[in-house]
Specification:
Bound molecules: 2-deoxy-6-O-sulfo-2-(sulfoamino)-alpha-D-glucopyranose, calcium ion
Shape: globular
Structural class: alpha/beta
CATH topology: Alkaline Phosphatase, subunit A
CATH superfamily: Alkaline Phosphatase, subunit A
Strand content: 5-15%
Largest sheet: 10 strands, mixed
Helix content: 25-40%
Oligomer: single chain
Length: about 525
Amino acid sequence: MTERYTIYRQGIITFFILITLNIFYSCKEVKEEKSQRPNVIFIMSDDHAFQAISAYGYGLNNTPNIDRIAKEGAIFNKGFVTNSICAPSRAVMLTGKHSHINGKVDNIRPFNWGQDNFAKALQNDGYQTALVGKIHLDGLPQGFDYSNVLPGQGQYYAPDFIENGVKKTYPGYVTKVTTDIALDWLKNKREKDKPFLLLYHQKAPHRTWMPEEKYFKLFDDKTFTPPANFFDEFEGRNAAEKHEMGIYEHMDLVYDLKMLDKEGEIKTRYRGIFQNKYNRMTDEQKAAWDAYYDPIIADFKSKNLQGKELALWKYNRYMQDYLRTIQSVDDGVGQVLDYLKENDLEENTIVVYTSDQGFYLGEHGWFDKRFMYEESFRTPILMKFPKEIKAGTVINDLVQNLDFAPTFLDYAGVEIDESIQGESIRKLVKGEASEWRDAIYYAYYEFPGEHHVKRHYGVRTDRYKLIHFYYDIEEWELYDLEKDPSEMHNVYNDAEYSKVKEEMHKQLVAMREKYGDSDELNKEHLERFLNAKRLNE
Ligand code: SGN
Ligand code: CA
């Protein structure tokens, strides 16, 4: 009896131990699975040309920290946006949908934060989420536990920020302040037992390129060689000819090129606006600024440059300040990468570096963006995730900013809604994608507007590009990117390309169908744009 009872009791005890162990292990499994979900740091700068990242090999500057991302992960040689302008690009990045679908087609009309975005989806699925820096979308950001963003374009010196809806001014330099806020969130504000998503977005190197004091002298004795098509005459390209993007013709000597002489002799259209920016600096900052720029101003005035000489001087002045602002961006990237390393977060954190679009660094004689030509259509993309991406990976497939949202959802194991138009690049970067797209679609809407870039849309394949400029102009352009990478020869009416032209027209129709775009939609956007403009006037 006693023996039997003991056996019976032992059986029951064993049974309970097994059940407990089972529960324990299955809980551990769930926990481990959850804790293995990758963190995401999505770094975006504003107007950062791929030509100005040393990993892309143009030899203009050194960005060792941004390059680290490519070295330890992947570099994308054919990364593109869908609409080369700031706020629309950010709306595409958040929603994974083209501008004509998410509604933010230009910098002017409001963004609807009420719609789905990938940060909301990650937040709902247990991620800690934060947005720091420039977002350029009005209203309180949705999808973030913490947000601390610049109002609109923001300021380089003594920037205002809106922290969870409350405005305050930070003394100091915007790029550094943005990095400090991002690091503070990583170190002190997030809950450390949850996976996190951090959108760390710099204002630099956006116009009007005011450098940080420690970089005033960088590139001081360097004379940059302009691109071969710097003195472009736009033969066969009527829309491009109507631009207001010229370094020579449209850059303001004071506002853009910092010739704020104390004597007030250099009178320009935007002098007053730059004076206000200068006035934001502290007395020490102003003294350091003057000590550097005053001799340059004196030298410039003494030379009385004209014509080509003036154009080249402007180009050099532009390059120096533009590249200097990038150096502070690169410092911040280094600090964030170091934080990951020192805190054992490297292995399980996806880091992406990109820009909201590309930028002209003298190609066609230009600055700014907006056109579907390569320098602004393309954008830098570098990405690392040691767990899955081999160091030194090079991606030559057509990838777009449309793909960020579904990619992050994919890595986080969150469902990708079928309304999302981008594709996850997870398999592509691993080298496991069995097939990939062979064409991408582009549309730009902000005309009439600053820089005078006509409304246009188009399609690009690996080799060719077809563009349609419309509204107050009717122009088609076709480029053979293999033979003419600088897009100087529009071959649309060239008999030799008639077959290619036909194929590309078919591709364009297919793209517009695939993404739900049409002339009717364009007309609607135009109406709303003109109404909004009228109301603003
Ligand atoms: C500002 C700039 C433009 C620039 C737009 C859009 N002018 O208006 O040169 O094209 O932003 O840039 S400025 O005189 O105000 O600097 S975007 O990156 O925000 O789209
Ligand atoms: Ca931009």
